[in-house]
């Protein structure tokens, strides 16, 4: 009995030691995770870029919740804290006032998208069109600027980030080529859309964009504006009025019924719904298929 009593504590001690070492290992893993650089990206296209470049070496927080139109987004307490403590912040000035205000007191490296993208101001608008990401070549320039900042902030993983940017750059170039080829031969090159969010798409691929409303998706067009859109649609011989997934289709649906036209969804990729399974690339490819079908492209 004396021998058994002596062995039992030793086994117990061994088990305790193993548990302690295991817990220490888990704590070490947790510390490794918490020591990763953090990135706060203001809305979906920028968050997607950050994720593609960062891979598993950094943690990305999207400051716009899924299914939320970024123009309307307000920061939660958690999101504001994530921005304040972020190693790198990627945002577009002027698009989200709540983010603009929070950035001024943040301590991380700030990458402002319009320092790399070339914005245009549509005729009749007082502000620049913020939807540069609908031109993949513009998004690639922003991604390059972000990669440079992230590589400086986390030099130990700089080569990893640059390699991932190279892959992203190739994917965006391929997407751009697909749009160029896909719209090379179309019977119609006019798009009637819900609001003025597709200007960069039109500029890059030679499309005429006729918006029902202005840059703000919440803007209500006047009767005069609707009459002008109807006239342009009829003159151009369009078959389809395009709606958006995160904005009300009511006005576009009404206009389509009045003109005897179809409707289809064209996504400005401002954000994804909560149940979305795709990403920027796949949504843009779906957009291409939608435009080709509506505009008689072969």
Plain-language structure description:
There is one protein chain. With 298 residues, the chain is an alpha/beta fold. The chain is built from 10 helices and 8 strands. The chain folds into 2 domains: 38-175, Nitrogenase molybdenum iron protein domain (Rossmann fold), CATH 3.40.50; 181-294, Nitrogenase molybdenum iron protein domain (Rossmann fold, 3-Layer(aba) Sandwich). The longest helix is centred in the first third of the chain and has 33 residues, at 2-34. It is globular and about 60 Å long. It starts with a helix and ends with a helix. Mean pLDDT is 89; it is low at 1-31.
Give the arrangement of secondary structure elements.
Elements: H1 2-34, E1 38-41, H2 44-54, E2 59-62, H3 77-85, E3 88-91, H4 97-103, E4 109-112, H5 136-153, H6 158-182, E5 190-195, H7 199-205, E6 208-213, H8 223-236, E7 240-243, H9 250-259, E8 262-265, H10 280-294
Parallel strand pairs: 1-2, 1-3, 3-4, 5-6, 5-7, 7-8
> Which CATH-level-2 architecture of the largest domain?
3-Layer(aba) Sandwich
Integer-rounded radius of gyration: 25 Å
Order of SSEs, N→C? Answer: HEHEHEHEHHEHEHEHEH
Strand content: 5-15%
Q: Strand pairing plus helix content: what structural class? A: alpha/beta
> What is the mean pLDDT?
89
| CATH class value of the largest domain | Alpha Beta
Fraction of residues in helix: 40-55%
Q: What is the global morphology? A: globular
């Amino acid at each position: 009995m004396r021998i058994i009593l002596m062995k039992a504590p030793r086994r117990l001690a061994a088990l305790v030691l193993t548990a302690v070492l295991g817990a220490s290992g888990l704590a070490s893993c947790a510390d490794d995770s918490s020591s990763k650089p953090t990135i706060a990206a203001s809305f979906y296209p920028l968050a997607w870029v950050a994720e593609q470049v960062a891979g598993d070496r950094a943690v990305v927080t999207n400051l716009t919740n899924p299914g939320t139109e970024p123009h309307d987004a307000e920061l939660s307490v958690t999101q504001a804290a994530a921005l304040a403590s972020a190693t790198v912040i990627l945002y577009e000035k002027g698009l989200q006032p709540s983010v603009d205000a929070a950035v001024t007191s943040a301590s991380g490296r700030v990458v402002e998208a319009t320092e790399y993208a070339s914005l245009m101001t549509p005729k009749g608008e007082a502000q620049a069109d913020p939807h540069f990401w609908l031109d993949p070549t513009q998004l690639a320039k922003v991604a390059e600027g972000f990669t440079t900042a992230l590589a400086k902030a986390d030099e130990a993983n700089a080569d990893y980030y640059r390699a991932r940017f190279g892959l992203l750059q190739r994917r965006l170039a391929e997407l751009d080529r697909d749009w160029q080829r896909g719209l090379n031969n179309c019977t119609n090159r006019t798009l009637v859309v819900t609001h003025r969010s597709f200007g960069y798409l039109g500029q890059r691929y030679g499309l005429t964009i006729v918006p029902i409303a202005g840059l703000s998706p919440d803007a209500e067009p006047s009767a005069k504006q609707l009459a002008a859109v109807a006239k342009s649609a009829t003159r151009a011989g369009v078959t389809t009025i395009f709606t958006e997934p995160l904005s009300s289709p009511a006005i576009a649906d009404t206009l389509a019924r009045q003109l005897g036209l179809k409707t289809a969804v064209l996504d400005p990729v401002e954000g994804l719904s909560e149940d979305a399974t795709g990403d920027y690339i796949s949504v843009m490819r779906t957009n291409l298929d939608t435009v080709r079908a509506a505009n008689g492209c072969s």
